[in-house]
Amino acid sequence: MTDASVTTATIPPAPHASVVGREAAHFGKLAAEWWDPNGSSAMLHRLNPIRLRYLRAAIDRHWDLDDRTFAPLAGKSALDMGCGAGLLAEPLARMGGTVTAVDAAAESIAVARVHAERRGLTIDYRAGGVEAVAGETFDLVCSLEVVEHVADARAFVAGLAAAVAPGGLLVMSTPNRTWWSRLALVEGAERLGQIPRGTHDWDKFLTPDELSAMIADAGFTVADVTGLSVGASGFVLGGSTALDYFVTAVRVD
Fold this sequence. Notes:
32% of the residues lie in helices and 24% in strands. The chain is of the alpha/beta class and 253 residues long. The protein has one domain: Vaccinia Virus protein VP39 (Rossmann fold, 3-Layer(aba) Sandwich), CATH 3.40.50. 43% of the residues are buried. Belongs to the methyltransferase superfamily. UbiG/COQ3 family. S-adenosyl-L-methionine binds at residues 51, 82, 103, 144. Keywords: Methyltransferase, S-adenosyl-L-methionine, Transferase, Ubiquinone, Ubiquinone biosynthesis. GO terms for molecular function: 2-polyprenyl-6-hydroxyphenol methylase activity; 3-demethylubiquinol 3-O-methyltransferase activity; polyprenyldihydroxybenzoate methyltransferase activity.
């Protein structure tokens, strides 16, 4: 069931420097189908379990938790930057976190609020960019498949880093800028309709070295880089970063 009945005509876009208007408009048009596993966000639905697996392992490792704990974020705050309609924010809330979630598309935020309310989840949803949390800090800051869509990647990473509380954790993911990502994501998935046309601009993809340098410039050190690839049974975590990758970072002491 989708939330196509949600109207967002009265919600103005947030005037934040990190937001690219055409990007927000593109994803805003997809908002009503966000929770449909067979709709335009079907790829994200297939990707989400592997994202959660990586994220849970990073959380357990960073805070030295038992991986059998049902609420690893209990007593902790979490930020999902570039949350869409809440596909990651809702699991973070179910992990026990006090969740704030931000997205450039006001339409997506409207759908996210309705979906969370129907499931009894309390999430602080906000429309805008990283500027929407300026001056606030969180124990966990996540931004998955987002940095390639912002106006200034370096400034965006600095904004994410500023939002991480002392002793906190930063987790990001993004496509790598390789011939394989161009072939698989732009020439392949978009042309075949697996991902909506216009979703990716290959020139804005970042290599692991480029993203790691931005993170280092923001005062953090990269603790882990793990590749995301496609295997016979779907998405898998592994050593190859040729398609996509995750990065975990912590503040330099």
